[in-house]
Amino acid sequence: GRIPENLAKVDDDDIEFCDKLEKKLDAISVCHEEAKSARDKRRAEESQKRVDAEATAQREAEEEERRRILDDAKMEAEAKPGMMWNRELREYQYLHDPTEESWRD
Question: What distance in Å separates the CA atoms of residue 71 and residue 86, rounded to the nearest whole number?
């Protein structure tokens, strides 16, 4: 039972093919790991940027609210007699005077 020459050649070719394939898979595995690591890092950075942007927006909104409260307090303090500062409309309005309704009696 001698193995024909060409079958042995096929086996050698298969082994060589498998060796090359294994090397390629190892290389791909390394690349895949690097790509995954880079992607994870990028996602973490993007997530941190979102958190920072939200915190900045929150701070700005709080600062704007503080400014608005201070402005309202200032405007109320500067109201002329018989007038009041309307915070919603952001304007001075005349105070309601019950004596002006005497015509309804």
Answer: 12
The DSSP secondary-structure symbol of 63 reads: H
CA distances from 92 to 15, 67, 78, 87, 89 (A): 92, 18, 10, 9, 8
- Tally of CA atoms within 13 A in the half-sphere of 64 that contains its CB: 6
* pLDDT tens series, the chain, 105 aa: 566 677 777 788 889 999 999 999 988 888 888 999 999 999 999 999 999 999 999 999 999 999 999 988 888 888 888 888 888 888 888 887 666 665 555
Partners of residue 85 on adjacent β-strands: 92
How many Å apart are CA 61 and CA 55, to the nearest integer?
Answer: 10
Q: Is 51 helix (H, G, I), strand (E, B) or coil?
A: helix
* Whole-number Å distance between alpha carbons of 54 and 60: 10
Answering whether pTM is above 0.70, one says no
Structure token digits, residue 23: 């090397």
Q: Whole-angstrom Cα distance, residue 46 to residue 11?
A: 51
